[in-house]
Please model this.
Amino acid sequence: MGVDSASIPEVRHPAAERSSTAHSYNVRICHWINLVSCVYLLWSGVHIFLDFPELYWGHTGYRGYPAAFRLADWGLSWEEAGALGDRRWGRNYHFTAAWVFLINGLVYVVWNLYTTHFRNRMLPARDEWTVARVRTELLDHLRWRSRGHAPDGGYSTLQKTSYLILIFVFVPLMILTGIAQSPGFTAAMPALLDLFGGRQTARTLHTIGTVALVLFVVVHVLEIMAAGFFVKVRSMITGK
Amino acid sequence: MSNRISRRAWLTNVSALGGLLLTGCTRETFIPPRVRGGLIGAADVLTMSTNRLLLSGQQLAREYSRSDIADPFPTWNQTNPRNAEYQLHASEGFRNWRLPVSGLVARPRERSLADIRRLPARTQITAHVCEQGWSAIGEWTGVPLQRVLDEAGGVTPAARYVVIDTFDGWYEGYDLFEAAHAQTILAYGLNGRDLPRGNGAPLRLRVERQCGYKNLKFLKSIRVVDSMAGIGRGTGGINSDFGFHWFAGV
Model:
């Protein structure tokens, strides 16, 4: 005891290290396309929101209707927000970026299902799901001791779990809450309205989801900084 | 230039595929009148063709119950066109207002509000979905646009778009797929009463599968055309002339 596990030097063959942590072409290309499309989605979404800076629950919501959230209550009046937001630019770029995001995401998911990347590297093994291990990882993260990977060089349990939830639960919910606001898509799939309990609820959840996604990215970047920003970014670019 | 040609060829192939899947549908069913350049244009085509494939059965938009209705119904944008002709009609209770149905129809004609009210009506409780983000549910009563076109002898084979002009200077094109939908109506009633001026009296269009800005108010005329070229800036309507999506299903 008394020996911090992080201080134990890892003795590994360089080739083995690379083969187990290197990002594939697919992961690297999709990651950066995803980043660009998400930046556009976020920025255009902010513009769309500023043009109508209130949120509601249910099927109905308009200016004067009881709101769940009003930007005016937080110091930015309707007129000030409207002057900042450009919904024409926002809508054009939001739906363009959404197609890039969707197609890129489908390529990523289908490719990595095919190559068993998800199963081999992202599905936590049974023995990874122990309370002790998760607690250790969590404490390491909180103490800024994350190395960005597990002792075996792969993703840690927390990484695996959060990435899988992000890809297979969170992102589909963002897409569904997005198209549940569309009069065209909801005419084709009215179940979307029932799923979320109304168009305005979908819009509100879409906005909450955006905030959650931004927080995820903040943590993601902090983790990378903790693990060595330069090395991690280089490995996502070059694969080494 | 070669880029442009190959994109056009690709779009033609896409619409040909659509035509195979949906007999009776034309290129206009899947592609906006003028496709914008770059990725935005590609996204426009993807959005419209995906929507139209999903809606190929002409499914109805969700109809709600009376308890969902917003009354009074919110008003937005123009609520009282300053146009002198409109003000005269309004002061006369729209008794002398006439709706011309012209262009590529067999028997062009004008109709009074009373004529329109005599046609078989449809009442629908639907959500008005503004592209800005608000939505409200109203009970709309009116005559299906297709019925009005049929009353004018139907459209000719060359017809591709129905163009609506309004007293507040708006103009929009709608492809025949949208015009033929059962819920595409010319509404003169809202929530059981005459359509209020703020909501588009005497007559407004309801296209329930598209955003609010395609649901024109204060109708002045209807014409059927073979192309949107030469109307406004030629992109298909006032909204797309100003850079908004022509197909407003999202």
